[in-house]
Automatic annotation (TrEMBL):
Keywords: DNA-binding. It comes from the Bacteria. Pfam families: TetR_N. Coiled coil: none annotated. It comes from Flavobacterium sandaracinum. This is TetR/AcrR family transcriptional regulator.
Length: 223
């Protein structure tokens, strides 16, 4: 799959950036090191000034790519869900049995992510950790309705809608396919967070993964 993905450019809504970071070495450096820094110090402590000091660039040069750290975080999350969607499509395209197709899709969106070597400046494993910890901060804002109108969350919703269609294919009579699909996608992030930080309130651990939980759940409620 890596060889296929290496020939694909993940498209991100152009309203999220001033200048596309994928078009220059500095832009790619901003993306690469912002991921590393947010993972290390957290989104609240992350600033463009600190990033500029890290990459040896003026803070103003970063603003030429992103108008705020919120827009940068939206860019990172949009790129992540675009990457997830490509993986989901390729992994399920040739599967004809509806339940097996759904189980594969659930695996893609709930499993622990490893770095994809085909994208040199983006470590997907680290980005996954950021999404687990920080993704809700991109949605739970006063600007969410306006950003939704601008199409900022289209790729995230596309991932959920693909899984919704797969649930319907397994059981057309199930009434809550959209709610189940969105619960799987966002709930998996929460279960990973609990597994890593609040272990006493989840059954997920080193031997039971969020993937195990959601596949078991879907098989039980879509019969």
């Amino acid at each position: 799959m890596n060889s296929i993905l290496s020939n694909i450019i993940i498209t991100v809504n152009d309203k999220l950036y001033v200048k596309n970071p994928e078009t220059s070495p500095l832009g790619k450096k901003i993306i690469e090191h912002s991921i590393l820094m947010i993972d290390q110090i957290g989104f609240e402590s992350f600033t463009f000034k600190k990033l500029g000091e890290c990459i040896g660039s003026n803070e103003s040069s970063i603003y030429r790519y992103f108008e705020s750290k919120h827009k940068l975080m939206l860019y990172l999350s949009s790129w992540y869900w675009g990457w997830i969607e490509y993986r989901l499509v390729f992994a399920t395209n040739n599967l004809s049995i509806p339940l097996e197709k759904l189980k594969k899709a659930i695996t893609i969106v709930t499993e622990k992510i490893e770095d994809d070597s085909s994208t040199a400046h983006i470590n997907e494993g680290i980005l996954n950790r950021i999404i687990i910890s920080e993704f809700t901060k991109t949605i739970l804002t006063k600007e969410v309705d306006e950003e939704n109108k601008e199409g900022v969350f289209l790729v995230y919703k596309s991932v959920i809608n693909r899984i919704t269609d797969m649930i319907v294919a397994v059981n057309p009579d199930y009434k809550f396919a959209k709610s189940l699909a969105s619960s799987i996608v966002e709930g998996a992030l929460h279960q990973h967070f609990l597994k890593n930080h609040l272990k006493t309130i989840t059954n997920c651990n080193e031997t039971i993964s969020p993937t195990d939980f959601y596949i078991d759940l879907v098989q039980r409620i879509t019969k």
